[in-house]
UniProtKB/TrEMBL annotation:
This is Exopolysaccharide biosynthesis polyprenyl glycosylphosphotransferase. InterPro entries: Bact_transf (IPR003362), EPS_sugar_tfrase (IPR017475). It is found in: Membrane. Gene3D superfamilies: NAD(P)-binding Rossmann-like Domain. It comes from the Bacteria.
């Protein structure tokens, strides 16, 4: 509970510090007359900048810096926060006062904010490291149980928490030499009490299965009597693996069968907000220029509609109409996958497929909520019926909305599927994307997609 409290307190302090830093920056701007705005508008702008920065930072995890290295904090999280703060400021302020602020001035404000945030993080990490290495919060710990859970704790204490914890040894009546080196075992459970008193132990970690109720009670009483903290990290090695997540519902730990970052409301809301902003930007700024040209080319090249609609399985296998620019002559075999040199493909269609411009109408699907900008590609209904029977994890990819581009596509798995192994690899990448989702991963996939479009993709036909 103390760790959780300290973590929350740290977040509150950092939020307040960031808000104060931004306020100070705007005070300096006001004193120097750098931006020609009234005092009231500058005050209003500083409040909007401050509150939106804190809100964006909470979404992107910039205040969780205790668990990250300094480099990651200053690069990945800070960059994500800056990016979404710019989008938020643009959407909320442009119609009010931001249009009257020169772009150069806004860029300079963001430069000042970036430098201030980087500086504050460096100071924070230096203070953090000082307390870690000064021994201010140094804890001597022992582990009861040579289990996989106990081994994981040992690795944490010696590798990641080495500056805060001094690991003193394992205690187990039946030590498992396949998991823990015997040299690390200090004795049996009966030897624990005397050892803790002699070595001035601060924390005991119980890593045996929870069936040992009487032992937990005895250890609890001993710990209370000797001002030692008892922590329980039970061994779930038979049922829990690295792919599992643990959620706390009030005080109830709940295990999931796999990592589910998009199962959290905050992450799902952030991804949906990004989809809306990104798809709207494409529709507003790109559609008016490119769509008329493509439509005229399609009509000139062959008879038929400009946009092709086809039912595809989406999130939770719910069917939706997927939009694409028509790239084939009218035919009756729409459930047949395109192959290299396919005679159904028109001349304009070949160009659209090669450049992925045929996917542009799917940004309307994104705006409607049927698709996402990034996600598993929506396969044909015939593929769903075929591969859901033979591939164990095929249906898992439908836990989330399909995407215009995806992790499998940027890793070379796109186009014609000639053998089952090809689909297996696509499913493998799709599941990996689901279990490791982050906003940064989405941005990386989008960047790689654009790069592939520019360079050309041999699998696009």
């Amino acid at each position: 509970m103390d760790e959780k409290y300290n973590f929350q307190l740290t977040k509150i302090i950092l939020c307040a510090a960031d808000f104060a830093l931004i306020s100070v920056i705007f005070v300096i701007i006001q004193k120097s007359d750098f931006i020609q705005l009234s005092k009231e508008n500058l005050y209003f702008l500083s409040l909007i900048f401050g509150f939106s920065w804190v809100a964006t930072g909470l979404f992107t995890g910039i205040y969780d810096i205790g668990k990250y290295s300094l480099i990651r904090t200053l690069s990945i999280n800070l960059f994500s926060t800056l990016l979404f703060h710019v989008i938020l400021i643009y959407l909320t302020l442009y119609s009010m006062i931001a249009h009257s602020i020169p772009l150069k001035s806004l860029l300079t404000v963001y430069l000042f904010i970036s430098l201030a945030m980087m500086g504050s993080r460096i100071v924070y990490k230096l203070v953090w490291k000082y307390f870690e290495f000064s021994g201010f919060d140094l804890r001597r710990v022992v582990i009861v149980g040579t289990t996989r859970s106990g081994k994981a704790l040992h690795d944490f204490f010696t590798l990641q928490g080495g500056s805060r914890y001094i690991f003193k040894g394992f205690f187990d009546n039946y030590p498992n030499p396949d998991i823990v080196n015997r040299k690390l075992v200090r004795g049996t459970v009966d030897d624990l009490n005397a050892y803790c008193i002699r070595e001035n132990i601060d924390e005991i970690y119980f890593a045996l299965p929870l069936i040992h109720k009487d032992l937990i009670k005895r250890l609890g009483k001993f710990a209370d009597d000797n001002c030692i903290y008892l922590r329980i990290a039970p061994d779930f090695s038979e049922v829990v693996h690295n792919s599992h997540n643990v959620f706390l519902y009030d005080s109830i730990p709940v295990l999931t069968t796999r990592k589910e970052p998009l199962g959290l409301f905050v992450n799902a809301a952030l991804k949906r907000a990004f989809d809306i902003v990104f798809s709207l930007s494409v529709i507003i700024f790109i559609f008016p220029i490119i769509v008329p040209i493509i439509a005229l080319a399609i009509v000139w090249d062959s008879e038929g509609p400009v946009v092709f609609k086809q039912l595809r399985p989406g999130k939770k296998n719910k069917l939706f109409e997927c939009y694409k620019f028509r790239t084939m002559h009218i035919n009756g075999s729409t459930e047949k996958m395109a192959v290299k040199g396919d005679p159904r493909i028109t001349r304009v269609g070949a160009f659209l497929r090669k450049t992925s411009l045929d996917e542009l109408p799917q940004f309307a699907n994104v705006l409607l909520g049927d698709m996402s900008v990034v996600g598993p590609r929506p396969n044909l209904l015939s593929q769903l019926e075929e591969y859901s029977k033979s591939l164990q994890k095929y249906k898992v990819r439908h836990f989330i909305s399909p995407g215009i581009t995806g992790y499998a596509q940027v890793n070379g798995f796109r186009g014609e599927i000639k053998e089952k192994e090809s689909m297996e690899k696509r499913v493998e990448y799709d599941v990996a994307y689901m279990e490791n989702w982050s906003l940064l991963l989405d941005l990386k996939i989008i960047f790689q997609t654009v790069r592939k479009i520019i360079k050309g993709d041999k699998h696009a036909y």
